[in-house]
Sequence to fold (804 residues):
Amino acid sequence: MLRSRLIQAASSAQRAFSTSQKALAAKQMTVRDALNSALDEELARDDRVFILGEEVAQYDGAYKVSRGLWKKYGDKRVIDTPITEMGFAGIAVGAAMAGLRPVCEFMTWNFSMQAIDHIINSAAKTFYMSAGAVNVPIVFRGPNGAASGVAAQHSQCFAAWYAHCPGLKVISPYDSEDARGLLKAAIRDPDPVVFLENELVYGTAFPVADNVADKDFVVPIGKAKIMRPGKDITLVAHSKAVETSLLAAAELAKKGIEAEVINLRSIRPLDTATIFASVRKTHHLVTVENGWPQHGVGAEICARIMEDQTFFELDAPVWRCAGVDVPMPYAKTLELHALPRVQDVVEATLKVLGGKVGKAVAAAK
Amino acid sequence: MSFLRKSVHLLGAVARRQQPLKVIRGAIPTAARDFSSEPPSDYANFPGAKAPFVSELKLIHPEDYAPIPIYRVMDSDGYIADESQDPQLSREVVEKMFRDMVLLNTMDKILYESQRQGRISFYMTNFGEEASHIGSAAALEMRDLIYGQYREAGVLVWRGFRIDQFIDQCYGNVDDLGRGKQMPVHYGSRELNFVTISSPLSTQMPQAVGAAYAMKLRPDNDACVVCYFGEGAASEGDAHAAFNFAATLGCPVILFCRNNGFAISTPSYEQYRGDGIAGRGPMGYGIATIRVDGTDVFAVYNAMKMAREYTLRENKPVVFEALAYRVGHHSTSDDSTAYRPAEEIEVWNSVEHPISKLKRYMVHKGWFDETEETEFIKDVRKKVLKQISVSEKKLKPNWREMFEDVYAEMPDHLIKQQEELEQHIQAHREHYPLKNFKQ
Fold:
């Protein structure tokens, strides 16, 4: 029952959101179409690929990501399952072990908790435990992170959870180019991939270059993308926080500050080379994510920098902008304040650049 | 002896007469459950169930259903009750069955002791369940894929996994197919179509169903999946998922429950209240079901043949319950005399033991030679003991392999760590037992 409520909330959120997008580029593609076309082409390209999950077939997917695919590919390639996450995740793992390439949809990643044993203990570890005899080429995908108005149990980011585990690759696309190119790469990858989408941008049309529509367009896993170059400070983000960072960078530009925005795209493997190179140039860093701060993606980036010579390039401590350390509240105003906003990123940047972080921490104590 | 045989025979006959097969059939109107045929016209037509209306108000009780009968071919004395059920296996096949069971039993005893002596970290014996392993494995084809729980070493023995392969795995040395990356008894063999054992209980069940689904999609498929699990494992949520998905997706999988009466210390009467695991099959999940005496190798063999034929013909699953008794402790971390009387164990370790039963059958056939058996056991003991000393002395896998097989392609950070370790070991060679590892 919660699920239908979730879908309604999501669709209203999408309507509200899509108005804010620029519509200047010649070619536009929504994230939903990017994902849908990636699935379609990979189903056509490789007959070992199949989709399974709740509502993915006749209903076209709870968020319509698999729209039209059941009609096109039929019951054997697009499979509706009973409501048992541990069941269809386990089925997918077994099918991958036996040579198929399943794309396993979780209606949202929140429900993947019921199946996490199959993802961590089976999908991620079997290749190692069998000493390379059994690989598990599988994509677990679905919407991740805070939606809109669906409260604590439906609004959280699992990037840090899954990125913790060796054996998994963890991808967090932001725009349509990311979604399309990375999903195709994930389906072709020999390892198990956790693919974390964001439902708030499903309906958003992003401008895309002409080659994005190519059948063989893939984005390499493990490489970040510089969304906006800058020389004064580096903003590192993933998923929807990339948008927050880009908007913050635009605000900062008005103040004469040139922020470089890095879209991580891939959480594991983490493209530290791109981050380090940027920090060596800007000497300042703010990380932006919608997940919680403790042991989060930003925390990992800080640790990696400290383990590297790049640490000595920093002119100020790194600042993490993350979700507030509470379960997501339902009330609209609280929800808004529980996630990093553009002004939070702007303020963090100004503090880092102003060298005031040390003083602020001292004052807090 | 003959009296016993006769009475058992009689009991069998009585049981058969009392078997309310009709009641069971009546309770499962197969035609109505099959969507391809029309239900009787007087049945209600709800989407969730097709059944008749009644005006009598009453609860349906578990006692209203007779228990699912236990198929058996051979009694405790090794006599075949109904000759028509004799699988007529050749002397050669029966001898292989017997020797494989004895080999498993002998190897288990020694490896169990080897854990007690601290030579390996862990072991699990198969005592009392030898017939369900060998009987089922003998009825399958090598192309059929096996998902075990962890107590199915007999299936591997039948398929040709060698003593050195078992022991190398337990000792995690350079010849272990798993390269020392998994606990003892977590065997796996691509060559023998046996998926590497996964420790978390019941995870193999939905995975087996998924593998069966993959097989079903192959053109002209002629292989099925067999998934072994215990009656305790059947309490996990994964078991429900596996049963329900196998039925709804229509998968060629045999869900083989080794009901050995105990989940570590929990007896089956505390594990469930229904009619075992078989009881869940027909009514609960709409799956064809068979229950057999798991200490009778021929019963397991016949039933498995039938189950395999059905699952491939219909692309539908089978629930297979083999009833036995776990004679050994759960694992080397357990002493079962703390929760069950030694006398009870003794009965199952002697007259009711599957090896004793098959032995008596062979005696009647004139296929058994006491000295030959003693020699065979002696020979196996010698081989196992010798192999232990060989496996113990073998080199451990190259330590660089620790970083391998995390991903298909080794990621940069692992390459870097491997290089750092190489440099470190190069610089401090004298502090490391490098001679014990393959270079």
